[in-house]
């Protein structure tokens, strides 16, 4: 996917950053061996699979005696701003978690060091969408960490109380069930808790209707949110919010699992780990979620599954890192088959096709695996990272949700903003 982009737009070969040298060891001219590595991860790892972090740390320190590991955790919304600042200095982290939609913009600028793909377990079988996100000009610049499916998660007890006894398989069944749940619980309850700024879901409706964010023609990308089919999808999305979401329409999805744990909603559509996180005793304020949650691949309005965004994370090594070999070794222990088993147990999808196949036969993971039968990804444009950084989509959706702008006016304005940055490398 990324290779096609590079071929299409003819981006010049990047000049890779030179790794910073360590200080001479007592004037011998030999660089001193690093005594510490710094690993940046998002708070997902800190909150939801800390045992995997410890597992990787223990394997690393057993092999590299005396080398310390310093972890820093960031919210997705703050990470890149911090990363941009430190990449301009000589003191950079040695491992950084990147969302797979974020990576290309940094690769174009030479921010990350190439890695030897053969040194990482399952590298011959990585998921295409993740491998493409770390591939640039025929070289590999990172390691896929995990993939994410988006699934419907609802409370069976709430559904049953409203007369619904099985998970929906069609859009008509879904809306009928939500109508019954909404009527049963009143207008202070959200039959579907759907934060307006969650652009992954909104764009799933756009894709379902045959629309898109942007299209490429002759190497140039042009925004298409104001096209009729895109508007059709956004009208369906808006009707979902107006009918079933009775909460703060200025919200994003970052704390969705926490809000869900408060017991004032029946359904969420989000990352497959969110239901489990909501059911954690620290989050579940109802005491009922653990035994009452059910996940399913969400049906879409046009007769297929709602198109599922292929999200996920990569692990990269900044080009200025003075501990690149150590960083690669830590990454290997954090992404190998044993690590993938932990991630699967938390509701994520693994980074390799061979590990994905068996999940469709396991009731605990079947919904996530099936959801990826109908998928989409963001435009592989050189300026896509700027679209995300400027939160153009989130702001457009927020304006629509709260009635600040009509769908037609909001999409036209968003298209103009996207066109200003999407082709800039």
Automatic annotation (TrEMBL):
Gene3D superfamilies: Periplasmic binding protein-like II. This is Carbohydrate ABC transporter substrate-binding protein, CUT1 family. Keywords: Signal, Transport. Belongs to the bacterial solute-binding protein 1 family. It holds the Pfam family SBP_bac_8. The keyword Transport applies. Residues 1-20 form the signal peptide. PANTHER family: MALTOSE-BINDING PERIPLASMIC PROTEIN, MALTOSE_MALTODEXTRIN-BINDING PERIPLASMIC PROTEIN. The keyword Membrane does not apply. SUPFAM superfamilies: Periplasmic binding protein-like II (SSF53850). InterPro entries: SBP. One of its GO terms (cellular component) is ATP-binding cassette (ABC) transporter complex, substrate-binding subunit-containing. One of its GO terms (molecular function) is maltose binding. GO terms for biological process: maltodextrin transmembrane transport; maltose transport.
